Structures are given as structure tokens and as C-alpha cells.
Amino acid sequence: MILIADGGSTKTTWCLVDGLATRSFFHTEGYNPEFIDTAGIVASLHQNLPSTLATPDIAELYYYGASVVSPLQVATVTHGMQAVFKQARVFVGHDLLAAARALLGQESGFAAILGTGTNSCIYNGVRVTHNVDSLGYFLGDEGSGAFIGKGLLRDYLRGQMPASLAANFHRTYSLERDTILDHLYNRPFPNRFIANFAKFAYEHYYNSYCQQLVKEAFTLFFRNIISLYPDYSSYTFNCVGSVGYHFRDALTEVATTHGMKVGKIISSPIDDLVSYHLAVAP
């Protein structure tokens, strides 16, 4: 059996493929090696994998994850997977490669991720050939859930959010300044905490404030990241991720304004990623 995983910073979506190519899906938390070590990955897998999953029967495991870039980050995740799936041949790669394979298959083109974080690349049908660093949620990640959530929190705390919307925000989350800052600076996974507030922008997108916030986030995504790719407008814009998918109308508008024709926008890469692996399997 083959197990394929798409690991974001918040959630990992898994697909088990049996000998008849039947697909079974399940979820665990995300395993971003910037925020979790090998021991944490092993503990989480033991706790969260379905009890019906026979790990010794997994022959191949393909795990694609957020921030799995450096040799050390790859090793952190690989050792965690190998400790649980002892019989499997394990491949660990970046979630950007998963996005490109899901969106483009074996064709060349442009692929982006707009979820908790942001990433993008030029792909030649085999590997990523050019990547403009998104710089993470501290310095960049324009257009991401974390970026949108950060804007909401900043405006709420500074009193710049419209009063009726701010009252709704307070009723929804009941968060005071000290609690928010404690989550950001003292608790684990601050990127997940911030990105969760993008849901509020989606649920209140009828409000012009939320529309403007989201469009500004996407405009900065194109201005500060996408426009740095040589001849970027010659590519079709393809995107995976919950933020890009749920705000796809605004994203399409901004992409068109910047001269990019929009192609495929999907919420999750897992179905197309599984199809890719079945297509290239020997």
C-alpha cells in the first residue's frame, strides 16, 4: 500500500491507496519542522493516526510538508516518519513540490500556495526551478491566512476596525490584548493562531472592510513576490490552498490586474497529488 500526505502548517491530509487504487483519506495536525521536532512528530502520529491503519503494510510513503527545505528539516521529518512506518520506503519533500505536481502534473508552469502561509515557484515538470522566498509570517507571507489574520488583529487592537465589526470580532473570540500577545510570543504555533482569523474575514466578506483587507493582501502578494519572477505575466496563475480557494474571486481579480491569466485554483492538492503518483508509478 502507498500512503501520500500533504502537510501544511496547520493540518496534514493523508491518502491511503491500496492495491486496487482505492483511496481512503484521514487527517492529523501539521508537522512544520520549524515548530516541531522528530519526537513531537512521532508522538503525534502515534496519537492521531487511525487505529485501523496497519503501518507495517505501508510499502511507500510520500510526505510533502511546509518548511521541509533544508537537509536538517528534511531529516527531522524523515526520522519521524521512519520511526512510525518502519517497513516503508520514505520520501520527504517540500509542500511546494506537492502543489506543483498537483496543479501541473508533468507539465511546466507556475504554481503557488495560499494557505496558512504563502509560497510560489516555477516548475519544469519534474522539479522546482525558481522560487522567490516568501520569508515566512514574520517578514512576509503576503496573501496568506497568517497575513490576513495579522491585519485583522492589528486593526482590532488599534481600534481601526469598523466598530460594528470589532464588536462582532470581540463576541466571536473574546480575546483581550494580553491574551493575543501571549499567544503570539509565548505559546507554540503562533502562525496557526494568526491564520485562524482569516476565517472571520471570509465569514464577513460582505463587509467592505474585509473585502479591502483581502484584496490588499493579494495585491502585496503580487507586488512583493509574484512580480519578482522574470516574465511572470507569461505564465498562467495556478494556486492551491484554502485562502486562495475561498477568496478565489478576489484573487482572480488581482491576478488579472497584474496581467496573469488564472488557471487552476483548488483547495487541497491531495486528490491531484495521488493521481500524479499513480500516473508516474512504474
UniProtKB/TrEMBL annotation:
InterPro entries membership: ATPase_NBD, Euk-type_GlcNAc_Kinase
Keywords from the UniProt entry: Kinase, Plasmid, Transferase
Gene3D superfamilies per the UniProt record, alphabetical: 1.10.720.160, 3.30.420.40
GO molecular function terms noted in the UniProt entry: kinase activity
Entry-linked PANTHER family: N-ACETYL-D-GLUCOSAMINE KINASE
Name this polypeptide is given: N-acetylglucosamine kinase
